[in-house]
Design goal:
Number of helices: 14
Number of strands: 4
């Protein structure tokens, strides 16, 4: 296969043939699936976290408390809607919509079934996918990037300090982890040869990309938690230090929109993980050995089951890990994920180029393994010299006399930096040890020897 085949366009002739009423039906169906999964997400989260913490969880509304999230939605709609006086009214009202709408848009290109095996809806043959694009992957990245504007504008327009800090955190968070997510998707594009979601699922016919691209899978797994603002990466709304972050000044239906957008985003990134790494609508083994497992309406069942498993992973992470510090979060994104993603992308590109040049598998393994060993050896040598230089620097600093730290050098008290010590504070003598004079008579301190005056008199 020539190298230009990596940029070939997928066959999308089966899309765009549906009548208008069927497009509406499929769009409403996608919206209904998302909302149903959002209700399941909320109840699952409260139930699973309750079981993990030895609590009962919701058990009042509906059987086993399954209608608790619906009751919460009705309650939020009926609560008083408060508008902050100092807020920018127009942006303050539009921010929840700007956060919710892009979260729904990504599901338009998610395949729920095979493109070459349509199903019948009201007597019309159609594909279990709303639409597909030659650059569907870029469309998904664009919609996920737009959604953060709702968070940022909500924090800015609230006219309050804590929401503003939450909006700034959201900006840094999406910049940091959008890069890692895009690099993980780039490896999928290189291996599948297409940016079309249906073509990416077709490329996983033999093996899922979670097996072929494990590093990309792990990077996306971390990046999607950061993109969805979920614990332990819920920095824009951390109640421990920002009260509620960008949500602090919101109430009633506007608050419900933000909560709904968070859960919709969680469902969307779970669907993307299923599509890009878990085989999409393909049946897992051993169900894949059944001849009719990937035909008809069965693929939608497998797809929803995989999505539910990824959602359970979200809940499990929230109930297991504490919130990290913000500096740790930034270090993970910029100094760990992005460098690993760049090296991994170069490795995947090298393997794909050698496969296109008809190199044997043994030759590819030898060349790639040799390159990896050479990089590890070079990094080992660099670490040795760097540790030696650090040790010499520490010894030189230890031998250097410590400068005197003056906390009042700038005219006002300054706390010492690490490695600096405050000078000793002069203390006055204890009152118990200083002789006191009362009416011309000198009294001895409390701890003085009572025999001393008698001895002095005998000597006289």
């Amino acid at each position: 296969m020539p190298l230009t085949a990596l940029a070939q366009e997928a066959d999308l002739s089966m899309f765009g043939q549906d009548p208008f009423w069927l497009v509406l039906v499929k769009a409403v169906g996608c919206f209904a699936i998302l909302m149903l999964l959002v209700l399941v997400c909320i109840v699952m989260e409260r139930k699973v976290v309750g079981w993990m913490q030895l609590r009962i969880g919701p058990n009042r509304h509906g059987p086993w408390g399954m209608l608790q999230s619906l009751a919460d939605g009705v309650k939020l709609m009926l609560k008083e809607d408060i508008n902050v006086k100092a807020a920018d009214k127009v942006v303050f009202l539009l921010a929840p919509l700007l956060a919710a709408i892009p979260a729904f848009m990504a599901v338009a290109v998610i395949p729920f079934g095979p493109a070459d095996d349509p199903v019948s809806i009201f007597g019309t043959e159609t594909v279990l996918q709303l639409t597909d694009l030659p650059v569907a992957l870029l469309y998904i990245l664009a919609t996920s990037a737009i959604a953060v504007y709702g968070t940022v504008l909500a924090g800015w327009s609230s006219g309050s300090t804590y929401p503003l800090l939450g909006g700034v955190r959201a900006t840094a968070q999406v910049i940091s982890y959008e890069v890692a997510m895009g690099l993980s998707f780039a490896a999928v594009f290189l291996y599948s040869g297409s940016m079309s979601t249906s073509a990416i699922v077709d490329a996983q016919e033999d093996r899922w990309f979670v097996i072929l691209l494990p590093v990309s899978f792990l990077m996306y797994m971390v990046a999607m938690v950061g993109e969805a603002h979920r614990a332990p990466f819920d920095m824009p709304e951390s109640e421990g230090d920002l009260v509620g972050g960008y949500l602090t000044e919101y109430s009633s239906i506007k608050f419900a929109f933000f909560m709904m957008s968070e859960y919709v985003h969680m469902v969307t990134v779970s669907m993307l993980m299923t599509t890009f790494f878990l085989g999409g609508w393909r049946a897992p083994a051993p169900l894949s050995f059944w001849e009719g497992a990937n035909s008809g309406w069965w693929p939608m069942l497998w797809f929803l089951a995989k999505t539910a498993a990824v959602i359970f992973f979200f809940v499990w992470v929230r109930g297991s890990l504490p919130r990290v510090r913000y500096d740790q979060f930034m270090v993970l994104g910029w100094k760990v994920l992005i460098p690993i993603a760049l090296v991994w992308l170069m490795l995947v590109a090298t393997v794909r180029a050698m496969q296109n040049e008809d190199y044997a598998f043994r030759d590819i393994l030898l060349w790639v393994g040799g390159g990896v060993l050479a990089l590890l050896l070079i990094s080992f040598v660099v670490d040795i010299f760097r540790d030696r230089a650090d040790q010499e620097r520490e010894n030189a600093e230890a031998a250097r006399p410590e400068p005197v730290f003056d906390p009042m050098a700038g005219g006002y008290p300054v706390p010492p930096l690490p490695g600096q010590t405050l000078p000793a504070v002069p203390r006055r003598p204890s009152r118990a040890r200083v002789p006191a004079t009362v009416a011309g008579v000198t009294t001895a301190p409390e701890d003085a020897d009572p025999e001393t005056p008698r001895k002095e008199a005998d000597d006289a």
